[in-house]
Amino acid sequence: MSDATYRVVVTREDSAWLADVPDLEGAHTFARSLARLDRSVREMIELAADLPDDTVGGLRLDYRFQTGDAAVDDVAGEVRALRAKADELATTASRRTAEAARQLVEHGLSVRDTAIALGISPQRVSQLTDTVRAS
What we know:
Elements: E1 5-13, E2 16-20, E3 28-31, H1 34-48, E4 60-66, H2 70-106, H3 111-118, H4 122-134
Parallel strand pairs: 1-4
Antiparallel strand pairs: 1-2, 2-3
Helix pairs in contact: 2-3, 2-4, 3-4
């Protein structure tokens, strides 16, 4: 996987989405749907940056959508940033929950008490501590 984050500027023209990667000379592509555009952008970056063939899925992309309305673009960008932060926090919370469940159970708390202490279900505590024990 590439450590770089590639900024991708996306605009709409007629029935196509156009993408430009300003930091890679000549890196432009287009598609009729955003889902297809993402795949095209990843393939184009892999080629333009001369990356290994297996990097497509692991590329970090920072999409900037330009709709022609700065207020709409700002709101969409804010939502994307908030969702990225929420995903990061959810990942951290999951990891820390597993660590805390293991520590509390090892410290002698029951599964039910651990669940209440962490605000999760007893079933989830059992899953987390069984997973830790199985590792």
